[in-house]
Amino acid sequence: MALPRAHLSRRSFLLSSPKPPPFSSFFRYSPHLQSQPNCKIYNSASLHTEESMASARQFEALSRKKLNWKPLCLYHTQGKCTKMDDPTHVERFNHSCSLEVERNGLGLKNFRAQKFDYFLVLDLEGKVEILEFPVLLFDAKTMNVVDLFHRFVRPTKMSEQRINEYIEGKYGKIGIDGVWHDTAIAFDDVIQQFEAWLAIHHLWRKEHGGLLKEAAFVTCGNWDLKTKVPQQCVVARMKLPPYFMEWINLKDIYLNFYKRRAPGMISMMRELQIPLLGSHHVGIDDTRNIARVMQRMLTDGALLQLTARRTPGSSNNVKFLFENRI
Fold this sequence. Notes:
Layout: H1 10-15, H2 53-66, H3 87-92, E1 118-122, E2 132-139, E3 144-152, H4 160-170, H5 177-183, H6 187-200, E4 215-219, H7 223-235, E5 246-249, H8 250-258, H9 265-271, H10 283-300, E6 308-310, E7 318-320
Parallel strand pairs: 1-4, 4-5
Antiparallel strand pairs: 1-2, 2-3, 5-6, 6-7
């Protein structure tokens, strides 16, 4: 639903309340995360141009000092872990997608009932073709992750040599290129498995027109669903699935709720005093961090509404539903 038009100057819009906490109070937060076992943390992958490399590296370094955590087992996230009976492996890696609720100082006093029962937090990776397709199923009432769908995606229009260079440049730097090569499958197979996963959770049925039921995608920006998925569907010679026709851009919700611009996930986490978990630009880690931002916004009283919708029958024409958007 579009917001009503408001004739505000940019200054009055950006300076009106509510506001997120100031940068200076960062890391007084989330003491409950201290109890997690100590473990190695991956280094950061390459960064988007919207946020400086130096700033993001500093942010990750501060997060490392603040938190002790275990990285996700990336075989387990794809249902392929064979070491659950190995105590050393279980001690080293996290095998749960659950997130503790990031409460604000007022607890849940400001929480508002949402229009959707579930949010599907999506953050794709890959510039030439999609390399990683992670989705967290987030319960709008409990504000926790119910389940996850995670697949690494094998490009179909690239030579094997180019794929190896591509993966080494993307995932080799943080030591997870091996799991990518072990598990990556073609995009059309990913979509087939994703639809089966949606059906298990009663969020989608092909017989009902292929639209989502009581759920909406949440992304950090419009690129994932506006641009990349349609491009990948063309490469895979498949029709754009109808459930990709609308979505919620969390950056637009952030701007219209806090009246303050944040160009990306790192900016939102920094302003909301939420330490980074995992490696920025590993898709499954980014979805978890986006979900933590969403948790905080919900406890602050934000209402997550659709921000973009495609014209019926078109994969290119998109209508943006908020007047003030990033």
